[in-house]
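Entry for the shared binder. Reason: the reviewer on the internal report wants the predicted structure included alongside the sequence.
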Amino acid sequence: MNLKSQRYVVLSLRPDRRIALLPYCLIAVLPYGRPLMPAGALAQQEPKPPQFEIRNLTLALQEQSIGVILRLNIRPRSEEFPALPYNAFTLQNPTRIVVDFSYTRHRVRKFLEWDKSTGLRDLRLSTQEPCRDTCTTRLVLELEAPLAQWRYETRQDKDQFILQVQRVRPRPPQVPAGNVVRRDTQEPSAGLAAPKYYLGPGDQIEINIFELPDFNMTLRVAPDGTISVAPIGRIRVAGMTVQQVEETLRKHLQERYIQDPHVSVNIREFESQRYTIVGAVRSPGSFPLYRGKTLIMALAEVGGLAEGAGLTAYLYRLDEKGQYERYVIDLHRLLHEGDITEDVSLAAGDIVVVPRGVIQVYVYGAVQRPGIVQGARPLTVLQAILLAGGPSDRASLGGVRIIRTDGKVEKVDVGDIMRGTQKDVELSAGDRVFVPESLF
């Protein structure tokens, strides 16, 4: 009897017999649905999740940031690289950033050494064993500072997973109103006012009274902020502009001696309000601090950055205890991206240091001292090889390779660079330079 006839039989039976024939009825309708197969055979036909493999780990370290780049393989291969399943979180005591990768194992056998001054204390990459198709790999970054001083972000770019960790930089405190900048209630409400300098102890000023030339004099502001002017006497000038001093002298002379006096005041020496800028700038030195001067104005005053200047500046400012506190300024964001939040107001006694850019690269192969080398920016491939002790006797300089942080490989003939027939190649932080050995 075929399935169709069986169905008619079931419908013609009395209600009390349908239950007895129910198992046979179920068996008969199965061919119209999913075929009856063993459970193991069904599981084999379900698609498996892709399996990832971490085959390379690269560190890109700057003074205030840590970059971890993972190069991935995928099984089975596909035209479009799938999304990597992961979970990122933080732990404290000690400060750690943890990333767990699902369906992932790693083949990284050894990490390169790194500079601990970047804030990275330890780096671990481990796969939970034993595992088959459900491996979990954990990446752990242990940091030296409290968690509140770091922020991080993760992203995947095709076959690369990138973890970027940035130190949160404290901002310099605002310049107190009574320290360097004193608000002038008489200043114009519109238009850009000329820079103003406020007198203080140690400044030297020249006073000229047109109607009383015998009383023209050059005076230095006393430690208590006063000057002694004949025939007026002692008056306080600390915290005043030259225009305010002129008006004060004019009033005293008008009340006692001259109906319409003409007074001029000029600053001969700026001593009380100064700042210093040194390092990789064109004209380092100590300069008078005018009202409202900011870091970008100070850089313009010294002629800008010198060649090879770094991307970070340091501002040292005295605190209430008379000790210097250091603040970090991102010059790349300030000068190249136009981020004015990096432009800070300067205070009396500030010291700005602009170091030369220093980067780290890894040189290995046929060199005298393979390993991490550090050099001032711009650092070239020839300089990096020389910092590694120079090539060995069996080095093949014609086949030197530069492995960039994004995985791209550049072949360079260092022999031509040494002969001057080829331009030297500039390196970036985290690049690797491989010097092969000659076969003969």
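Summary line for the report: Helices lie at 3-12, 15-29, 39-45, 242-256, 295-301, 331-336, 381-387, 414-419.
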